[in-house]
Structures are given as structure tokens and as C-alpha cells.
Write a structure and sequence with these properties.
By secondary structure, this protein is an alpha+beta fold. It is 25% helix and 37% strand. The chain has one domain. The longest helix is centred in the first third of the chain and has 22 residues.
Amino acid sequence: MKRMIGLAAALAVSTAAAGAWAQAPLQVVELYTSQGCSSCPPANAAVAQISGRPEILALSFGVTYWDELGWKDTFAQKKFTDRQWDYARGLRHTQVATPQVVLNGRLDVVGQSVAEIDAGLRRAALAAGGPQVTVTGAAAAVSGARPARTADVWLVRYDPNTVQVPIRRGENTGKTLPHKNVVRELTRLGDWNGGAKTYAVPAGPKGLATAVLVQAGPGGPILAAAKG
């Protein structure tokens, strides 16, 4: 009987922990990288290593300003470079550089090791109590208290697979670099000022995963996020 009571108590604790875990906010880790940057492979590897954690949404953005230095990044888009510049202004930097890992839009680190990223996340973690975000099929829903400023709602499509890219020119000539969770599409769905609001999610290319970010303006902190 004592053993059965002990087992029941353990199951109750486990269930409570699982419920708390389900409600924990998703932590957004954004890597800004370039295939032409010799300092980037360690950061690519570190972000790939943490990408499997259920509490983390890891996203890899290819930027364009290395493209004239010998190798054109096959994933880079101008809008990703623009997003990094928004963070530079929001975080009070005068320049952009790679690699850069932005944590919940609140803090940035170089990000060349998991330990460095984890230390940054402890300082910039999203706490419970923010907006609730759900993504189901062709719709995304956001609800919660009115934010201090109008928030942007972003749709992100990314490749959840590891993609091997052979580099033929530039600083990484001759290397084949693995990339994980490469962002292929970034679309603003609209704004959010509190309350409950639903946004249409257009159909995306096959093979890409979906996420939605709620962000306090360009280069501002992430308020909430959800995977589709």
C-alpha cells in the first residue's frame, strides 16, 4: 500500500510538472549568420545543438552584407539584414556583425558556444504571463493584456532539417557547412494592441515549419511566440 501511495504521489508531481512545462513561454533564439563568415560555423553549430529543446525556437537568418566578399550566401535575404539592423538600433549598437545571436529580442551575444547562449538566456528569458499565441492550420490567434506599445505579429517559415552547404569561395572555401532551422520566409501578419485577435496564415511551401512571433515593434523585445 505504501508503495502504491508513493507511486501515485510521484505521478501527481510528474503531471503537475508537465502542466507547468506546457505553459512555459517559448524562448526565441535568432542567429544572424553568413556562409562567407569564417567566425560563423561555431555559432551555427551551437544554435543547431539547442534547436531540439522543446522550450526553444531557434531561427537562423542569412544576411547579405558578406555577399560581395567572395561568396553569395544561398539563404540570405535583404529583409533579414534589415531585421538585424532593427535589432542594432533597439540594442543601441552602431553596427551589425556576424555571428550574432539575439535572445528574445532583449539581449545579444556572439553565440559561439552553447554555454554562452544559455548564460544569455538566463538574463533575457521570457517569463510566464505574456500574450497567448496559438497557430492552427490557416490561422494564428493572439490574446492577452494590452501591451505598452503596438506589437507586430510575424509569420516565420523555416526549414527544420539540417542543410549541408558546400562553400566554393570566400573565407570558408572548401568547407561544407551545416545549417539548421534556416528561415526562408518572414511575413508581417499585422499588429496587435491587446485583446483577442486572429490572423490568416497563408499556405506555405511543403517541408517548411511555421512559427509566429509577437514583437514590441521593430527591433523590440519578443513578447510571445508559438510553433505551428
